[in-house]
Amino acid sequence: MTPFGRALRRLRAERGLTQKRMAADLQLSPAYLSALEHGRRSRPSPMLVMQICQYFHLIWEDADALERLAALSQPRVTVDTTGLGADHTELANRLAADIAELDADQVDELLALLKAQRGT
Known about the structure:
This protein is mainly alpha-helical. 66% of the residues lie in helices and 0% in strands.
């Protein structure tokens, strides 16, 4: 699941909507909406994110937050370490190889470190 998919599922559940109903309202296939929620599809287009924000009548800050989550929701990531140090390349490769083995606490710790570094 992606951050966007988790948020989308939460918004849908809070409003008591089924995937089938929401998909029909947005003129999407239920299979596509399910794949989007589960992270089996690429991140949504900016137009689809805008459509979803309008569908849920999200206010400005909530819409911005959903747009940021969409930007962070590419399920297949490429990390280009060209021009960076060997440690950067090792980190990227170790993360790619071992990410599935990290438990929730380790993921939270790494995310907190990266968010603190960016100030987000």
